[in-house]
Design a protein that fits this description.
By secondary structure, the protein is α/β, with parallel strands linked by helices. It folds into 2 domains: 173 residues, 3-Layer(aba) Sandwich (Rossmann fold); 101 residues, Rossmann fold (3-Layer(aba) Sandwich). It contains 12 helices and 12 strands. A 6-stranded mixed sheet has the order 3-4-6-5-7-8, with helices on both faces.
Length: 291
C-alpha cells in the first residue's frame, strides 16, 4: 500500500490524503526507482500539492567488494545501508557516482525533499520549524534500519548537527565536513565556490577561524542546471572560479558541482576539492571502525 511520511511517522495512503486535505501534511513519498542495482529503495519526498505515489523497487544482490577492507569487516560492510538525504535533486547523481567508484557494495537509500531548499531560499534563514523537519526525516531514515546518514545539502549545517545529536552514536555526516578536513590540512586561504546563495551564509562558519574563506557565488549556474543545461552550469561555475585564482585551493560547495571540477581547475589554475568523494571515504572509514 502506498504510504507517506507525515509529521515524522509513516501513515497509509488513505490517512495521508486525509492529512493533506486538512492542510497539515509536511512531506510525502513519490516515485521509487532503482539505480545500478545498488539502491534497495529510493524515497522521494516532495511538497508540491500534486498527486503522490510510491513505486517500490526490488533490491539486487550487492556486488562483491573490490576495496581493501579487512576480511573481518568485509561481511558487515556488504550489508551497510546508507541513507542519503537531499534538498536538491541534482545531488543524487554525483553522490551515487562516488559510491559506485569508492564503495560499490553499500546499499543506498535516497531521500529527496526539494522543498527544503525552496523554503530556505524563501525564508532567508534557518528556522526552528526547519530543524524539526530535518529531525523528522532523520527519524524516518533511522527507522528503516540505516547504518548511517549522509546529508548532501550544504546550507543546513545547524539542522544536520541537531540530527547528529539526536541520532548518536549513529554516524550522521554533514555534506562538506570531510572536504573541510582535507582543506584544513592543505591550505590557509580557501576559495568557497557555490551555486546556492544560502550556502555562503552558513557554510563558512564550519571552517576553523584560523583559515581565510573567500566566498564566491556562481550566479545563474543553479538555474541552468534546473533547466537541464549541465554544460551552461559547468561553464558558469568555471568562469566564476577565475575570481578565486589568488586562493590556495578551491572548494566546491554543492555535490552537483563535482562534475565541473576539471573545468574549474583548468580555469583557475588552482587545486580543487569536491564534496562527494571525501564524504564517501570518511563514511566508509567510520563504519569500518564501528564494525
Amino acid at each position: 500500500m502506498p504510504y507517506a511520511l507525515h509529521e515524522g511517522r509513516a501513515v497509509s495512503g488513505l490517512d495521508f490524503r486525509q492529512a493533506r486535505h486538512s492542510g497539515t501534511a509536511r512531506a510525502l513519498l513519490v516515485e521509487g526507482q532503482c539505480a545500478a542495482g545498488r539502491v534497495q529503495s529510493v524515497l522521494h519526498v516532495r511538497h508540491k500539492g500534486s498527486t503522490h505515489r510510491l513505486i517500490p523497487c526490488a533490491s539486487r544482490k550487492p556486488r562483491s567488494s573490490s576495496s581493501l577492507t579487512p576480511p573481518w569487516a568485509a561481511a558487515r560492510l556488504l550489508k551497510m545501508r546508507i541513507a542519503l538525504i537531499h534538498a536538491l535533486k541534482h545531488s543524487i547523481v554525483p553522490i551515487e557516482a562516488s559510491f559506485a567508484r569508492l564503495w560499490p557494495d553499500a546499499t543506498l537509500m535516497n531521500l529527496l525533499d526539494d522543498s527544503l531548499s525552496a523554503d530556505l531560499a524563501r525564508d532567508g534563514r534557518l528556522t526552528v520549524a526547519m530543524t524539526e523537519r530535518f529531525l523528522a526525516i532523520g527519524r524516518y531514515a533511522a527507522s528503516t534500519g540505516a547504518d548511517a546518514i549522509l546529508f548532501t545539502c550544504s546550507a543546513f549545517g545547524p539542522c544536520i548537527e541537531a540530527v547528529a545529536r539526536e541520532r548518536a552514536p549513529m554516524p550522521v555526516l554533514k555534506p562538506s565536513e570531510a572536504m573541510i578536513e582535507q582543506a584544513v590540512a592543505r591550505a590557509h586561504r580557501i576559495g568557497l565556490l557555490s551555486t546556492f546563495p544560502p550556502t555562503l551564509v552558513s557554510m563558512p562558519a564550519e571552517f576553523p577561524r584560523t583559515l581565510e574563506i573567500v566566498p564566491k557565488l556562481a550566479t545563474g549556474a543553479l538555474a541552468a542546471l534546473d533547466r537541464g543545461d549541465r554544460a551552461e552550469h559547468d561553464r558558469l561555475v568555471a568562469a566564476a572560479s577565475r575570481d578565486l585564482r589568488d586562493c590556495d585551493l578551491i572548494a566546491l560547495a554543492q555535490y552537483s558541482m563535482a562534475p565541473a571540477a576539471s573545468l574549474v581547475a583548468e580555469a583557475s589554475g588552482r587545486p580543487v576539492l569536491t564534496t562527494p568523494d571525501s564524504a564517501v571515504l570518511k563514511l566508509k572509514q567510520l563504519l569500518t571502525l564501528r564494525s
